[in-house]
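ok trying this again, last paste got cut off
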Amino acid sequence: MASETSQPIVSIITASFNAGEHIERAIESVASQDYKPVEHIVIDGGSSDGTIEILKKHQGTVHWTSERDAGQSDAINKGIRRSRGEIIGWLDADNAYEPGAVREAVQLLKENPDAGVVYAGVIDIEENGDTARRYMPPEFTFESFLLYHEFNFIPPSSTFIRRDALEKIGLNEVLDVDLHYTMDFDLWIRLGLATKFIRAERFWSRFQLRSTSKTGSQMANFGWDILTVVDRLFARQDLPPEVRENESRIRARLYEHAADRLITSDFENGRKLYTRAVREAPLSASSKLLRTAAYLHYRDSFLGRTYRGVKRKVSQH
């Protein structure tokens, strides 16, 4: 533990696998921070693309291991278990910190001793290096996180967490290794029940947009993960009354988010989820949800009838 006059150690955890194209930028963004002490732990999943050579190059500033793992959640958990910091940051291998991010996060936690999590905005960067958008997430309340605003609006690489907040939810397995797409969403839910979140009106990281990223290339799996988190959420016995009272509306909202990700590659299940979302909370369903559910229902019915009619005609000849 840090004394009153010393600075708390900040541990930055990075999971990597064949991230040689980007990881040096992440490493340098940590090394160039104007805050000390910082330890940067990289847990590599056994890369074969040159990542290891980059890690060896930065041996003096990065603590790293390379071995097979069970995915990103497993790697982050390993890094947290090996860390010494009172404050934990999670920086993906293809993202990078903005200058001053760590110092500002530590200062905000000092100013808010009752807060276990601080977070800020993120700058999305196109593959060609252009800025796609500067995203400032809204203020966090448990109900608003589930019911309003953009889905899962807290960017992991712009978030710093007190170690004692993580201990409240289980330090050995901070991320659920069975979740590969919504492990951060699940984490914010569990932390939201355990501690206070504070937002900084700053931009603490850059997020590299890539067509081959998990969220970009495997959206159907992302949707199934959302459903898993929904079921686990409402199986809990410690939900605030305002969340329990709004269960139908929250389920409808999250079913819609899952359907948005399923529909392009799994039309039938996506359509069913849109319909299920409307049935959960018909009086509070958005006009967009109602239009989408109705369109897909009648499109499916019309195409089904047309296909069956054509099939009958063909069989008669």
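PB: full thing came through this time. Residues 287-316 form the longest helix (30 residues).
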